[in-house]
Design brief:
about 475 residues, alpha+beta, Penicillin-binding protein 2a (Domain 2), Beta-lactamase, 3 domains, five-stranded antiparallel β-sheet, 16 helices, 19 strands, elongated
């Protein structure tokens, strides 16, 4: 009996010690895997370092299955299309990662799930996970057309399917080789031309007269004018001592319907009616189109602004903002959204850059939800569509005259502040049932109608041939 009692005590002590060891183990596991999540991204973490040479990392493909980025057998990450560099991004042990490489790192790397299940799997199963491929919405033909049309000129092109928000093309120039970052990285980061800047989503430019689409929406919505309202400019209109000329545009001087003021981009008329719209009205419509807020998008975006945070909201600033100058700043993605809203009957389908996750050619589902919101009424969108068709039909953007295709567009020639102008053009086609919306900006390019619209024309032609 004494021997049995001793055995029982020893068994109890062993069990208690085992429980204590397990408790310590799980506490340590919780600390390192749950509470010390900061270590997951530490550049001294072997798992982080190994991700840069992971032969199991998934590929990045365009919608046609063309490989944009893949990992070779030796763990080297290979990139194939410089025009997609800002979208695909880079993966480098020194400079980190950007673009899709960063946004979908866990998918591409096959990272274990978070929480207790993931922590236990990471501790007990040391086999390297296999990543999935990420398929982008990019159309190879549309992307190539945009890259060729823009050429070596600094600027950006964004092409969306307005019906679902899929990005068909997104080009930023200058570009770079993501695979050569280890060699040229220091020079790229120091380059004054900012080749690493994704101009399509982060470049901020005064939008010029393309913004008149937003101002016109506010004016029409609030009944300040109708398309047929007769407006008059004798030569210039003076607002609080600030003269705004209408002699520099066709049909600027004289009396004509408001629709013609849009067609021929008469600054003075938009300044005059913009003042009647007021800061409250202009701010309301601009914010509904996405200004003053971060655009929800796959990649990082810069916030387009109506005016600076410390601006004195004077009547003169209101007038110049109404025709697209003032302190306005917009990204090309923002301006593509404006064209897309008009094209899509007043509803914005939130832009997205990915179609699906797949492994071994088998779809594993979408990576981004389809989201939409109404910006303006369908009736107002239809009127604006007619306005933008009138711009092209009246010879203001000859570069998008395509045989058998009705195109709607708006030119912009935005003062850059250094004596030059950025060339802008936003457009959609075909006007009766739009399948593409485009925004083009050429830095210091001059006239939007003659410089930017031909670029948009080539992109539209490629998209409608899909």
């Amino acid at each position: 009996m004494i021997a049995l009692n001793g055995f029982a005590r020893r068994l109890s002590a062993t069990g208690t010690a085992s429980l204590a060891v397990l408790l310590v183990f799980f506490c340590a596991l919780a600390y390192w895997q749950v509470f010390r999540t900061d270590l997951a991204g530490d550049d001294r973490n072997p798992r982080v370092l190994s991700a840069f040479h992971d032969p199991g990392r998934g590929s990045i493909l365009d919608r046609d299955g063309n490989i944009l980025a893949e990992t070779l057998g030796d763990g080297t990450r290979q990139y194939y299309d410089a025009s997609t560099a800002h979208l695909v991004g880079y993966l480098d042990p020194r400079f980190g990662s950007q673009g899709i490489e960063l946004a979908f790192h866990s998918v591409l790397s096959g990272a274990v799930p978070s929480g207790w299940a993931g922590a236990l799997s990471a501790e007990f199963d040391r086999s390297r996970p296999k990543g999935s491929d990420v398929v982008l919405t990019i159309d190879s033909d549309v992307q190539a057309a945009a890259a060729i049309a823009l050429g070596a000129r600094s600027g950006a092109v964004v092409a969306l399917d307005p019906r679902n928000g899929e990005v068909l093309a997104m080009v930023s120039v200058p570009t770079y080789d993501p695979g050569a970052l280890a060699i040229h990285g220091d020079g790229l980061f120091a380059d004054a031309t900012s080749p690493l800047l994704t101009r399509a989503t982060q470049g901020l430019y005064p939008p010029g007269s393309t913004f008149k689409t937003v101002t016109a929406a506010g004016i029409l919505e609030r009944g300040i004018a109708t398309p047929e309202t007769i407006v008059t400019c004798p030569g210039e209109i003076v607002i609080d001592g600030f003269p705004i000329s209408c002699k520099n545009t066709p049909q600027g001087v004289g009396t004509y319907p408001f629709k013609s003021a849009f067609t021929f981009s008469v600054n003075a008329i938009f300044a005059q009616l913009g003042v009647k719209l007021g800061w409250a009205g202009l701010t309301d419509i601009a914010r509904r189109f996405g200004f003053d807020s971060q655009i929800p998008f796959t990649l990082e975006t810069a916030k387009s602004q109506i005016h600076g945070p410390d601006a004195e909201t004077t009547t003169v600033l209101l007038a110049t903002t109404a025709f697209g100058q003032g302190e306005l700043l917009a990204t090309p993605l923002q301006m593509a959204e404006i064209a897309a809203v008009v094209a899509n009957g007043g509803t914005l389908a939130q832009p997205r850059l990915t179609l699906r996750e797949q492994r071994d050619g088998r779809s594993l589902g979408s990576l981004e939800p389809a989201v939409s919101r109404r910006v303006i009424t369908a009736e107002l969108a239809a009127t604006l569509r007619e306005f933008m068709v009138s711009v092209v039909q009246n010879g203001q953007a000859a570069g998008v005259n395509l045989p058998g295709v009705v195109v709607g567009g708006k030119t912009g020639t935005a003062e850059a502040g250094d004596g030059t102008s950025h060339a802008w053009f936003i457009a959609f086609a075909p006007a009766e049932a739009p399948r593409i919306a485009v925004a083009v900006v050429v830095e210091h390019g001059g006239q939007g109608g003659s410089v930017a619209s031909p670029i948009a024309g080539q992109v539209i032609r490629a998209a409608l041939a899909r």
